Amino acid sequence: MLAKRIIPCLDVKDGRTVKGINFVSLRDAGDPVELGKAYSKELADELVFLDITASAEGRKTFTKMVERVAAEISIPFTVGGGVGSLRDVETLLNAGADKVAVNSAALRRPELIDEISNHFGSQICVVAIDAKFDGGQWRCYLNGGRVPTDRDLFDWVREACDRGAGEILFTSMNNDGTKAGFANDALRKISTEVDIPLIASGGAGSMEDFRDAFTLGCADAALAASVFHYGEIRIPELKQYLRSQNIEVRI
User: Fold this and answer.
1) pLDDT digits (tens, 9 = 90+) for 89-99
2) How far apart are CA 150 and CA 160, in angstroms?
């Protein structure tokens, strides 16, 4: 059995780590590079850095910060935000990123997934999906949760997988920042429909929530932000708890 992964997520705006609730009401959480160093020492399995306003503001991701992170940490990390071309991906990989996340640009032009997978390998391509349950449907959103689309979450997951995505990062906008648990029903459905790794995001508030994401949601990894940034859950203690629940993790 592959070990489950614990992944702190650092949403970055104007060079600072921020965190909100349901994608709004952002507050400062610290320097992203310093947080990344701390999580690396705390035995996080990976990190995700997202430039959360890059797509909405029409600019590219923060290459200089990526270089600083790569120089300071020793665990794999994914970078996303404003990635819309092979050149963007190449720039981030050259700066030190291990994987690149695409979201809005891939929704607008799904062929981008094929291009990244064919050129760099599917293991490089993480397809991040922000979706909200509304009117009986999980609907995908663009630009950091600002713009609704007509795309159904599960249809988009299947298409992204078919086009060569190496991993799916699903964030429930309903659960984001609420600390009320992950969207385990949706996670479980995704896990049954594709055979690539699935990262759960949105809603972590307790160690039990992580357990449930793995056991009920069948996720391969669980991502969280505020509970780690503000010291509410420490990663070493979380991993010991998950081990006690018969969930395989790296310690």
Assistant:
1) 999 999 999 99
2) 16
